[in-house]
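#random but structural
TW: two for the price of one
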Amino acid sequence: MKNNKSYSSVSSGITQLCRAKAGEITPQMMIVAKSEKRDAGFIRTETAAGRIVIPANVNHKNLIPIGIGKSLFTKINANIGNSSLSSCAGKEIAKLNTAVKYGADTVMDLSTGGNVPEIRRQIILNSKVPIGTVPIYEVVSRIKDPALISAELILDVIREQAEQGVDYMTVHAGLLHRHVPMAMKRLLKIVSRGGALLAMWMEKHNKENPFYENFDKILEICVKHDVTLSLGDGLRPGCLADASDEAQFAELETLGELVKRSRAAGVQAMVEGPGHIPLNEIEMNMKKEDEICDGAPFYILGPVVTDCAPGYDHISSAIGAALGAYHGAAMLCYVTPKEHLGLPNEEDVRNGVIAYKIAAHSADVGLKKPEARKRDDEISKARMEFDWNKQFELALDPDRAREFREDALREQNENGNHSSSGDNKFCTMCGPDFCSMRISGKLSGH
């Protein structure tokens, strides 16, 4: 990429977008095509159009690239990271491994506590999946007082993270000074951490959002390392009462503008979305983003569909996530049972990932994506044949399925309820005498 600010010749760049526009099918596109059961030419065309992004920082050496776009399998992201009250790299690596083991396609390090760069370095070193960050968290962790945020520090942090190998970054560049009064009419005001910090800075200094003001400089860094931008929704609704309001959609209009600027610079971009949305408004929200942001992949948090389920928000949000993916969302950011309550531990990460794998897979089946239902049909066949090991193998959480089966058998044996037939072609829910599949399997059909 020539060192100028016009970005007129994106084909000369190293990014997946630049190379796709130049007609090149990159090794990363070939890998994505194979995993998606798609033609490599299709992946290149959609990447060139900005409808698929392949987050693949040139400095993330052990990365296995993935594609994110509504035409591909629905992806899920797991958030990890320390807080100012909990700062241990070992725990975050354990969370990373758990998230990837159970099916996270990407992982975001949202660390806000101590030693952030070193924790991130270890996460990237140990991760074969794309790693995302929210740079403003590190900015504020360095200076403590958000009022001291400066453009220079923002650019320094983004540059250092890009050099370290971060594949995609959430930048809250769409929240403008004029949007803040709209958010103040809300029940929950601003629930995005990055959004709230920037709103406070803008109000104190009476200046425009420094991420927006310096967006071209951010693009210069991203295009050099092929960092994908995840355009953050600093005004996402944090409760049903605030859903689909003027603040949310005013920011979305700005995000649509930033998508165009990113693409013109040769930088891949996806757009982040709500939040807390009632079921009846999810389809409209997905279609609105697709239209305003010209088909850029939509990366949604949930959405949570009811506000009164603390402790179970992995369920309340997975319901919304499935519907969101069915109507066009490309990636789902998981929510754990600890949402709104505390920092998730390793078991919370597992539960969140599985809830979202269920949501993503359900949407893919409904959309009839290539071979999406194959796994369902195979496990149904194994169920009919009482092939327990095959069922465990095909389960989204094999460990949990096996654990439940073994616990049930152990309880059965402890109670002395052994099968008179001496086989295992039943479960303890029905027993051998009331098992519908066991009974119907003996029917002739005449």
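TW: number two ↓
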Amino acid sequence: MAELLILWGYIGIVNSCIGAGVLKGIGLLTGRKKIVYGLAGTELAGIVAITVYAQTVSIFGKVFMAAHLILLAAAAACAYWCRKELLVIWSRVKKICLSWEGVLYLIFAVMTAYFASRGLQHTDTGIYHAQAIRWYEEYGLVKGLGNLQQHFAYNSAYLAYAAAFSMKWLVGQSLHGTNGFLQAFLCIWALYGLKNFARHKSHLADGCRVGILLYAIVVSERIMSPATDFGTMYLVFFIVTLWTSIACEKEGKVGEKTDLYALLCVAVVCVTTFKLSAGMLVILALYPAVCLIRSKEWKKIGIYLLCGCVVLAPWLVRNVLISGWLIYPFAAIDLFSVDWKIPASYLQNDSDQIKVWGRCLYDVTKINDPVSAWFPVWWGEKDRYEMMLLIANMVAGISAVLSVVWKRIRKEKLCWDRVVVYAAVLGGIAGWFFLAPFIRYGLAFLLIFPLMAFGEWLRPMQMGPVRIASGFLCAAIFFSLSMYWDYYVLFDLVWGKQHLTDPAWVVQQDYDSVEVESFEMEGGLIVYYPAGGQENISYDAFPATAYRVMAERTKLRGSDIRDGFMPK
């Protein structure tokens, strides 16, 4: 636990240094030199930049000691270049840390470290997250890696960020603390924003901040894992909350806000490379695009598009090198003919499995069943607290319609930056529902939407039919969500008590140890797989696959593992 607190402090400093340098560089290019980004903005920019850096390094070599030392040198250079900006940020942080408010935040960070230092390993971490991080550490990547196990072809960029701070070269153990860092930082940031709740004229962003805290309650028992779901959902919260806080709480000129929105859209590209289920957030780009086109700021448009391409490029290159497909598992974009390409039939089966498992059908022959056929099955598989979460979203939809009608009656001018964030969140929910409706895949959207609707109506209003209706809708949202947080609060309390004696007060609990068997692949490589038909291969055995059948249909491309893999 103590080890994690030190690691988080280090991650926060490196993020802010790199982020400040990146933002200052973009500001010089666009001509916006005096925008105040704050700690949250520099941290987000740092996360994006380090993710891109780690992916780029992995194309040419392993993400290990040398790569980290280069990153550290870059952070030091950025710290010197941006020393004035960073001193302003750090002086504010220091002032908070030396107050009673800072003590509260420290207690919260320690509580998060308690959960992140021990506990349950996410199922997918055992299947492929841990192995993917090990591939980053050992080789970066090899061609055709997705043939060894198709999960590697998902190529979540979040695992590059996790690998950049695994620190195995320094402490002898591959740490997995980046999700814990995101939870600790975002929860403290949310609490800091909520302290001014009474002063806020609009509580749209406050609803998002509450969503961050609620999501933390949901995932705390497994936050130890470098699960791509958690990292993706936290960045969705981060981006949407920043967007709504700029829209509702930030004073400034329209042009300055537009630049901030455009930078957030670059971050949207990054979170899409974390998990494609977050891709509908790209709808946010419509607002700054229209604003910049209207003002004919073509240079800025080119710079922001270039930034987005820089973020996207290493992820696409890795996709092609790992699977032979530009975007896996989408067979519609078939551009390459390479010997390591995952066969289209395997890709299609994988894509179908994701969808039917999300719909609780568990049979790929039912992939084309209409919504009317699979929805009753899917709904029946949900626990009561999950049903209530979905009902909260239905109520929020009614609330959003009422809000639009009320504003039209009052002839209020629509705030298009708010409209577009609602559209992006609703787009995220729609994409989640029709593609792969696992609750955890879209949980950030499912929490944000009702809480945004709740926050929208928390404002002074004359007594009348609209106020009464909005009051009932807010109460319905609150009680629908109460079962969800009540379930996880009780679960976390019981879990926390049960793990008090775990030996993780100083050093983080390692990845699960599992029993493995081995076989020799065609080409002479020894590959490990879980014994007894299990799916958990974890981290230690390497190279390994959670599914022997996938490795059996694969062979080496050459005489060495560095040559990569190809289908038989």
